[in-house]
Amino acid sequence: MSRLMNMGRSGISTAAMYVNDVIVDAGNLVGEENEGFKRAMDGFNRARVLVSAACIGAAEAVLETGLEHLKNRDAFGHKLKDFQSLSFEAADLATRLEMARLLTLEAAWTADGAESDESHRDRAITLAAMAKLTGPQAAHDVMKSVVTSSHAEARGLPAPLSPGHPARVRRQRGNLFPDSSTRG
């Protein structure tokens, strides 16, 4: 057995184990004979749903922090939440996060149903992959938006989400998030 180095998931140990010429009595088999790979892949499909759920949970907490910031922070004599551009972006992020959350719930529900009804298996695999794609992407977008805004303010610079910031102008042309060159 050899330990594998993980990137990003340091709380979970991963190892490679190789066995050759092992004979397992029929009474000691887990599942059906020659179905081990299928069982392992089913585990990966469930893990995809869990990764999405973890990302969404973290992003919901970050988004809540960002929304509180919009409600409490004053700029130009108004709360940040009163600026349409900021509330529209917050609504967009919340909507994308909710869509990812609902897709993840459907993936989990379908995976549970696939255990008792094999006809749901293909749909469960597809939904797990879709959840793994959308959950982390939505979480990344939420976190980047909130952290970028907070970081700029902590450095005494205009927040990239505030009206009049150069990133706001670029965003109207299709670039949703500012790059570091706009921070002076």
Can you tell me about this structure?
Helices cover 60% and strands 5% of the residues. The longest helix has 37 residues, at 36-72. It has 184 residues and is mainly α. The chain has one domain (37-173): Butyryl-CoA Dehydrogenase, subunit A, domain 3, CATH 1.20.140. The strands form two sheets. It has a two-stranded antiparallel sheet. Strands 3-4 form a two-stranded antiparallel ribbon. It has helices at 36-72, 84-116, 121-154, 166-172; strands at 2-4, 14-16, 74-75, 78-79.
How many helical stretches? 4
Distance from N terminus to C terminus (CA atoms, Å) equals 51 Å
Bulk shape:
elongated
- CATH domain topology: Butyryl-CoA Dehydrogenase, subunit A, domain 3
Features:
184 residues, mainly alpha, Butyryl-CoA Dehydrogenase, subunit A, domain 3, 60% helix, disordered C terminus
In short:
This protein is mainly alpha-helical and 184 residues long. It contains 4 helices and 4 strands. Helix content is 60%, strand content 5%.
SSE blueprint:
Elements: E1 2-4, E2 14-16, H1 36-72, E3 74-75, E4 78-79, H2 84-116, H3 121-154, H4 166-172
Antiparallel strand pairs: 1-2, 3-4
